[in-house]
């Protein structure tokens, strides 16, 4: 069974990034900002404007010529500028770091660990409060078999589906929230490999006696559809630069050769296409809230692209990774140049 090992990382090897520029003509597309959870630095806000409401980020979602939807700059964006931040729709710590990071925001916890291997921790009352709805559902069920299934097969994405399902049952999220995101195309074998996870998830909720009407959304099609979207759109969360690293966290993570603190799916960041020589970057400083920044000056109308993979890989390795993990052949300028 595939271990779904292809995840989007924050890592781009800047030293190897060439100065090739990529400018793509955007078609007019409707903006999807009403769907997005974002905040901005508030730059450009008029003085008399309500200070509580942040200015919209300088981007729009439009249609690209060859890569479906993409994100375009609505004004010139300077190198190093914070384009916007994004809160996750769904996130989950890695099983190997669950004792060491906040169960809600994935922030490292100084005195994590402890005696109870199954226990979860929060970094603040606010996070505990925000997790209350899905925890109220999650703690009613027994997850031993489901978590063992994920652990033994090295699966991370079913954990995101589990949390998403808990949020839906609690009424915090709509079951079709992720439908707008592009799904991976799944082979019949991939779908049949997902059956065990679905059965375990559904059984856990069933055994906890949730009423059928609250679980009506939880069909096999829903489960595989959500996983298909997560596969293309989830980010693997690693904090930037090791600045906020923690030896204990590193030690815990290395037990399973897992550097990431967890995985998350966002709305707006999901619309950024890939480039092996990107002009934008997604990073995490101390928790799961993502920051999208410009790596170089970007002109108004230019498409903003991030790198999904380690850009220091060879041309052939990048192509193989993108094709097997994301199902597309990369035709960015760097790839076309043969670099
Ligand atoms: C995370 S989504 C990006 C948004 C997507 N274009 C959409 O319409 O929702 C990733 C998908 O976008 C497309 N894509 C992203 N970067 C691409 C590239 N460099 N070349 C071709 N297709 C790309 C692929 O279909 C890929 O699976």
From TrEMBL:
Residue stretches making up the SET domain: 57-309
Protein name listed in UniProt: SET domain containing protein
A GO-annotated cellular component: nucleus
Source species: Parasponia andersonii
Domain of life, per lineage: Eukaryota
């Amino acid at each position: 069974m595939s271990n779904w090992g292809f995840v989007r990382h924050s890592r781009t090897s800047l030293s190897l990034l060439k100065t090739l520029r990529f400018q793509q003509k955007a078609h007019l597309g409707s903006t999807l900002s009403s769907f997005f959870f974002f905040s901005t630095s508030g730059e450009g806000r008029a003085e008399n404007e309500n200070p509580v409401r942040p200015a919209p980020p300088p981007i729009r979602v439009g249609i690209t010529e060859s890569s479906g939807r993409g994100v375009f700059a609505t004004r010139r964006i300077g190198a190093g500028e914070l384009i916007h931040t994004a809160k996750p729709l769904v996130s989950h710590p890695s099983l190997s770091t669950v004792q060491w990071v906040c169960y809600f925001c994935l922030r490292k916890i100084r005195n994590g660990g402890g005696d109870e291997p199954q226990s979860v921790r929060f970094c603040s009352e606010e996070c505990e409060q925000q997790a209350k709805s899905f925890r109220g559902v999650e703690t009613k069920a027994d997850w031993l078999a489901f978590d063992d299934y994920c652990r033994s097969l090295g699966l991370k994405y079913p954990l995101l589906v589990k949390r998403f399902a808990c949020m839906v049952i609690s009424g915090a999220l709509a079951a079709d929230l992720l439908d707008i995101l592009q799904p991976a195309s799944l082979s019949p074998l991939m779908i049949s490999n997902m059956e065990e996870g679905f059965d375990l998830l559904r059984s856990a909720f069933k055994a906890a006696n949730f009423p059928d009407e609250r679980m009506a959304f939880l069909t096999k099609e829903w489960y595989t559809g959500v996983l298909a979207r997560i596969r293309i759109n989830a980010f693997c969360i690693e904090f930037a630069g090791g600045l906020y690293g923690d030896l204990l966290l590193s030690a815990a993570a290395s037990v399973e050769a897992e550097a990431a603190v967890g995985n998350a799916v966002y709305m707006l960041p999901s619309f950024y296409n890939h480039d092996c020589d990107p002009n934008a970057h997604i990073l995490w400083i101390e928790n799961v809230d993502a920051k999208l920044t410009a790596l170089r000056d970007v002109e108004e109308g230019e498409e903003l692209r991030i790198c999904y993979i380690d850009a220091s890989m060879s041309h052939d390795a990048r192509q193989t990774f993108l094709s097997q993990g994301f199902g597309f052949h990369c035709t960015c300028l760097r790839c076309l140049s043969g670099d």
